[in-house]
Amino acid sequence: MGLLSVGTPLPWTEAKKYADHVRTHGITQFLHIWDRLKDRSGDELLWGDEVEYMVVSFDNQQKNAKLSLRQTEILEKLSSIVDDICADCPDSVSVPRFHPEYGRYMLESTPGSPYTGSIQDLLSVENNMRYRRSLARKHLNPNEVPLTFTSFPRLGAPGQFTEPYFDPADAVSSHSLFLPEEITNPHARFPTLTANIRSRRGSKVAINLPIFFDKNTPRPFIDPTIPWDRNIYPEDHEAKDGAALPDHIYMDAMGFGMGCCCLQLTFQSCNVSEARRMYDGLIPIGPILLALSAASPIWRGYLADVDCRWNVIAGSVDCRTEEERGLKPLKNDRFRIPKSRYDSVDLYLSEDWTNRPEYNDTYVPYDEAIFERLRKHGIDDLLSKHIAHLFIRDPIVIFLENLDQDNSTNSDHFENLQSTNWQTLRFKPPPPNSEIGWRVEFRSMEVQMTDFENAAFSVFVVLLSRAILKFQLNFYIPISKVDENMARAQQRDAVNECKFYFRKDVYTPGSSAASTRTPSPTSSCSCNSGTGPKEKKLRNCFSPPVLPEDGFVNGHSVSDEYEEMTLNEIFNGKGDQFPGLLRLVEAYLDTLEIEPTALTKIQQYLDLVRRRSNGSLLTCATWVRNFVRSHPAYKHDSVVSQEINYDLMVAVDEIERGVRKAPDLLPEYYTGGNKDQGHLDGI
Ligand code: ADP
Ligand code: MG
Ligand code: MG
Ligand code: MG
Ligand code: MG
Ligand code: MG
């Protein structure tokens, strides 16, 4: 989440009057940034992760695991601790940062300063994550544990799932049947977001996940835990009037989605065009890594037939009106909008010749006046369209005190829209008055239970991003196929059950990589031509793909460029043509000077990715599903009871600390994070 402004948030009826004001000044702010920084170049690779935690409060007498709502106190404590460490420590030590998130039980942590491209920094990621976790853990109550778990299994289920208990009847912002007001971060921004999304939409959000039918799950499944006849808020009738679908798990509030935890990565690029190239390169990777990191099979106390959070979050902030959703003819609203403001990327952005216009093949509404304004200012068609598309949305939270800003030094109005377009990738312009360059954020991954896994996925993505740039890899497939992959990625056991569209030939004609490619399944990829000394660090500023002199033209049909592959094939290769992402990453590693012990550690991370992708290790989601289905108290009716949830949360903590083995989930060399901090002893 961005910086939290203070002031008076406007209710939707007021806020909407200022929507054009915010958009107009937001664009002015972007143009200031553009004018100052469009030619900025030479920025080094800096990168960082964001890890989100839910603080779970264990009641070992009642055998209940609940969400601790002490976020405010915890963050106050952590920030004073962090300040103390800062006062004592040498400048070179990076002191972690903790940030608030939507859920009042959530924390986010980031490294104190971004990692550089050094191999040493690459290897410090896991320890950095562990340090952050242990710092947080040390300053919680003895029965509280920060878990990196994507969706809390019993959020919104009957009984007590928060500590302390609150009644959903008081949910004045969301009007939820299931979640109390106190689930939400009390800072004015969050209840206002929640209420204004509901008001703008004209109803509560409605999320329906297919239930996982186990052998004793009633058919049809009509959820007995929905208070169908409650009559407190005007929207209470929605559930029975069709919002809650049979055979589905129904959720009706922002907290179900924004209360999930994820793992995000941000990379600084050399300059704006390299940022756009990398953004495009990572777009088709978004759904692939969502599938591989799948970690959320339980929702509101039930096993779902999906493994991921994505559609839940998309639905949880879907502020589109009925007209915008295409349910009514357009009358008061301006656009039909195919997706929620939280969804997969809509447009490729690069100006490289490899980005064929045919790849942007979906209907993408954009604000024509804003588009014209950007074009007149000299901004190219693609970037203008990207911004004009983000700006079809209304600003949802506006602070009265913040309406007038100095547009040359402030970007709050721009960020108001930019940072509430929650897409799989985010193209981040430099903030004014900072040293920060053009960045790209990779946002699709689910958080894993251990920092070993979180580090492994992070290291894999940063190395892949370098391979994309260094070897001028071409991953383009039509956006419509990326969208299809997003849907498939969330299906139960997608790793083993689904195929994904992927590009068959990932080498750019004319690039050095293409001319030397002969990767065979037995040798490591030889796409690196091997000339020149090895590099000592991961870097930025690679040469862009150049249109070959022989006038190579894109004469063939786009539909010949891709095919459906399994995740195993995407990661580990298919035939002689497609080397697989892992071999591309290894080829990139070959271009670096890395000492053997460091290489061994990196190979362990890649090994985790390999074993998850070929099915020899389970995804987190499958492991969790199996845990529930083999629990002695499980009745094979899809219900994840308080007792099962308690045992699951205990197991997750024990796995993280390495005191419980999970050989089907983690490699044998995983020895655990914070062994010394058992919570169960002596409580
Ligand atoms: P968000 O707006 O996505 O919540 P955060 O500030 O929480 O962003 O996290 C941003 C991440 O980017 C952190 O991991 C941070 O270390 C990293 N970061 C900070 N500065 C840079 C930079 N100049 N280039 C790349 N990454 C950076
Ligand atoms: Mg976050
Ligand atoms: Mg953040
Ligand atoms: Mg954030
Ligand atoms: Mg932020
Ligand atoms: Mg982020």
Automatic annotation (TrEMBL):
<dbReference type="GO" id="GO:0005524">
    <property type="term" value="F:ATP binding"/>
</dbReference>
<dbReference type="GO" id="GO:0004357">
    <property type="term" value="F:glutamate-cysteine ligase activity"/>
</dbReference>
<feature type="compositionally biased region" description="Low complexity">
    <location>
        <begin position="509"/>
        <end position="532"/>
    </location>
</feature>
<dbReference type="InterPro" id="IPR014746">
    <property type="entry name" value="Gln_synth/guanido_kin_cat_dom"/>
</dbReference>
<comment type="similarity">
    <text>Belongs to the glutamate--cysteine ligase type 3 family.</text>
</comment>
<comment type="pathway">
    <text>Sulfur metabolism; glutathione biosynthesis; glutathione from L-cysteine and L-glutamate: step 1/2.</text>
</comment>
<feature type="region of interest" description="Disordered">
    <location>
        <begin position="509"/>
        <end position="534"/>
    </location>
</feature>
<keyword id="KW-0317">Glutathione biosynthesis</keyword>
<dbReference type="Pfam" id="PF03074">
    <property type="entry name" value="GCS"/>
</dbReference>
<protein>
    <recommendedName>
        <fullName>Glutamate--cysteine ligase</fullName>
        <ecNumber>6.3.2.2</ecNumber>
    </recommendedName>
</protein>
<keyword id="KW-0436">Ligase</keyword>
<keyword id="KW-0067">ATP-binding</keyword>
<dbReference type="GO" id="GO:0006750">
    <property type="term" value="P:glutathione biosynthetic process"/>
</dbReference>
<keyword id="KW-0547">Nucleotide-binding</keyword>
<dbReference type="GO" id="GO:0017109">
    <property type="term" value="C:glutamate-cysteine ligase complex"/>
</dbReference>
<dbReference type="InterPro" id="IPR004308">
    <property type="entry name" value="GCS"/>
</dbReference>
